[in-house]
Amino acid sequence: MKLSVFIATSLDGYVARVNGDIDWLMKFNASLPADEDCGYADFISAIDTIVLGKNSFNKVLEFDQWPYANKRVIIMARSDVLVPDVLKNKVSVFSGTPKELVRSLNVKDANNLYIDGALIIQSFLNEGLIDELIVTVIPTLLGEGKSLFGRVNQDINLRLIDVKKYDFDAVQLKYAAIK
């Protein structure tokens, strides 16, 4: 089983504003050439299971359409999550630890997991479960917000696999976790 992160941050390391808004990212995405997705389509095509935090799930619900058709989606949350009726058969909620989730998915034919949401990513990193991080750095400084990386329980060593510079001033970094 492979656990991957595919995420964008501001140059100063934030994934969202303090209030959770990603307007800066949506504005940047709108400025890209129509055929450019920074490798997301290729990445998501290999994913069978998406693990989101409650805040990320609520943000995705604001999109014009559900972006995870034909994917198993799991919301990690310790409190109630309101799942719209239209998604009840596509989304499940899990309240355990990342290791407990991975153990349960090992018996459910999950092969490639996409871990999304800063706090969820941090919890999987702290349990040593992330295999790959793909981080696209957007040339915007927010000054404050929700940081991609928080405190870690131990050093997390990474090996740089690839660096991609885009003509629109973004950089994508791909790392493998050294376990």
Could you explain how this protein is built, in words?
With 179 residues, the chain is of the alpha/beta class. The chain has one domain: Dihydrofolate Reductase, subunit A, CATH 3.40.430. Helices cover 22% and strands 31% of the residues. The chain contains five helices and ten strands. It has helices at 23-30, 40-45, 54-60, 98-106, 118-126; strands at residues 2-10, 14-16, 49-53, 72-76, 91-94, 112-116, 132-138, 146-147, 158-165, 171-177. The mean pLDDT is 94.
Estimate the mean pLDDT confidence. Answer: 94
Low-confidence stretches: none
Order of helices and strands: EEHHEHEEHEHEEEE
CATH topology: Dihydrofolate Reductase, subunit A
Tell me the fraction of residues in β-strands, as a range: 25-35%
The CATH class turns out to be Alpha Beta
